[in-house]
Amino acid sequence: MTPLPDILLEPLAKSALLEDLGRAGDLTTDAIIPVGVRDRFVFAAREPGTVAGLDLARLTFTLIDPSVTFTAHVADGDRVAPGDRVATVEGSARSLLTAERVALNFLGHLSGVATATRTLVDAVAHTPARIACTRKTTPGLRAVEKYAVRAGGGSNHRFGLDDAVLVKDNHIAVAGSVTEAVRRVRAHVGHLVAIEVEVDTLDQLQELLLDPVHAVLLDNMTPETTAKAVAIVGGRMVTEASGQVTVQTAPALAEAGVDLISAGWITHSARCLDIGLDHSTG
């Protein structure tokens, strides 16, 4: 995995810490832990999964206290089993205890996204199809959630409204037809901007093929209809399937021959991976 630069991650960690520290800092830790006490804690997996978010966890500690040592024992994208050590932090006990919840929030959530992605990637591994995320991300966390998707073996869809065109059903409804929507897009965007069009029926697909674009999104089609659509496209556009994608339904969609399968739940509904931070005795 190519890590995201710290300059992109720091505002996220800083904002989360400010939210947690509030106006008076960590009342509990400051009352119980004397200044100068040093300690060590270990992040350990409590269930199987795929890790993501180590750099955000590290930054959470070092923003509180630059002298804290954060040692990763695995890398983002690695699979872990229950009991596996993920990372060790060492330094001022006050600093470690103040930062622990924010670090765990980031690490658990992003590892959950990576793990959810990996379940779909594994489900279609017998085919060439790739798993992709969507823009259904937590506000403010899109870059790191999409990074976590990559850690889970998935691919990224567009990052925002400004880096590619995706003509959806409501755009087509307002424009009046697939053909008119595509005509307006071509007149508006530059030649380097990729265009994808969502279609709900094979009739819409046939209309789109009168003026093919870069990619077509086959929305909420059965595996049987998806296979027909792939055959109709005949390699002239990238094919993407979406809608009601689960671990159970993804294999049949992949076997229908699509290039991509996109799922929103791997970011917006991924369950946190259970990772604990426990006091180290050695």
UniProtKB/TrEMBL annotation:
Residues 113-278 form the Quinolinate phosphoribosyl transferase C-terminal domain. It catalyses: nicotinate beta-D-ribonucleotide + CO2 + diphosphate = quinolinate + 5-phospho-alpha-D-ribose 1-diphosphate + 2 H(+). Residues 26-111 form the Quinolinate phosphoribosyl transferase N-terminal domain. SUPFAM superfamilies: Nicotinate/Quinolinate PRTase C-terminal domain-like (SSF51690), Nicotinate/Quinolinate PRTase N-terminal domain-like (SSF54675). Involved in the catabolism of quinolinic acid (QA). CDD domains: QPRTase. GO terms for cellular component: cytoplasm. Its EC number is 2.4.2.19. Keywords: Glycosyltransferase, Pyridine nucleotide biosynthesis, Transferase. Pathway: Cofactor biosynthesis; NAD(+) biosynthesis; nicotinate D-ribonucleotide from quinolinate: step 1/1. GO terms for molecular function: nicotinate-nucleotide diphosphorylase (carboxylating) activity. Hexamer formed by 3 homodimers. Pfam families: QRPTase_C, QRPTase_N. PANTHER family: NICOTINATE-NUCLEOTIDE PYROPHOSPHORYLASE [CARBOXYLATING]. InterPro entries: Aldolase_TIM, NadC, NadC/ModD, Nicotinate_pribotase-like_C, Quinolinate_PRibosylTase_N_sf, Quinolinate_PRibosylTrfase_C, Quinolinate_PRibosylTrfase_N. GO terms for biological process: NAD+ biosynthetic process; quinolinate catabolic process. This is Nicotinate-nucleotide pyrophosphorylase [carboxylating]. It is an enzyme of class 2 (transferase). Belongs to the NadC/ModD family. It comes from the Bacteria.
